[in-house]
Specification:
Layout lengths: L2 E4 L6 H10 L4 E4 L2 H5 L3 E4 L5 H10 L3 H5 L5 E4 L1 H4 L4 E2 L4 E2 L7 E4 L9 E9 L7 H7 L6 E7 L1 E2 L7 E6 L3 E8 L2 E4 L7 H13 L1
Parallel strand pairs: 1-2, 1-3, 3-4, 4-13, 5-7
Antiparallel strand pairs: 5-6, 7-10, 8-9, 8-11, 11-12, 12-13
């Protein structure tokens, strides 16, 4: 089994890699669309701006490859945001796997960016689809995870599986088919974050 961590010159590769090593998972870093297309699982980490990330993905020929994936996919932080149709950040067109637009937190209502630990409320297990259920079923309610972000994903019927409150309620975990996204950083969230990664590796 090969897990590919997508190297698009904008991601937080090495923290994710270190977490996967800790779990004993086999993985490679690659920005080669052929390698990504043949992966058994794909992780899209993210640090930086939506525009720079999309420009890099497009330049490497990865956008259509990612959209066409049928294997388990995990987007982390910016990697979640890129799954949506658009981002307010530089008015960027994103991958369009999920409906809706990424918005910026209101700096008049709360400190921007959100940096630090916050809770995730998980959708009830009986409402989860099978893929999401393998990853998040039975996770402790209101677990704390580590967040660093200025933009947030909307609440979306049928795809939001975890919510967080920071000035407003937003989607901190989403799923659509084989595409899963976490706004928080599981690789920086202690044992509870490693448990989510462990389940993704095993799914």
């Amino acid at each position: 089994m090969t897990i590919v961590v997508v190297d698009y010159r904008a991601g937080n590769l090495y923290n994710v890699g270190n977490a996967l090593k800790h779990l004993g998972a086999e993985f490679v870093f690659s920005g080669d669309p052929v390698v990504v297309a043949k992966a058994d699982k794909v992780i899209l980490p993210g640090v930086g701006s939506a525009r720079a990330a999309m420009t890099s993905l497009e330049g490497q020929g990865l956008c259509d490859v990612i959209r066409g994936l049928k294997v388990p996919f995990l987007g982390i932080c910016l990697g979640l945001q890129l799954l949506f149709e658009r981002s307010e950040e530089d008015d960027t067109e994103c991958l369009g796997v999920l409906p809706g637009s990424i918005r910026k937190f209101d700096s008049e209502c709360t400190k921007v960016p959100q940096i630090g630990w916050n809770q995730v409320a998980w959708r009830k297990n009986d409402l989860l689809d099978p893929f999401a259920g393998q990853i998040v079923s039975g996770m402790p309610e209101a677990s704390y995870f580590y967040f660093v972000h200025s933009y947030y994903a909307p609440l979306t019927d049928g795809t939001t599986i975890g919510t967080t409150i920071y000035g407003k309620v937003y989607s901190s975990a989403v799923v659509s088919g084989n595409f899963l996204g976490f706004q928080f950083h599981p690789e920086r969230s202690g044992e509870v974050g490693l448990e989510l990664l462990r389940r993704f590796v095993a799914c």
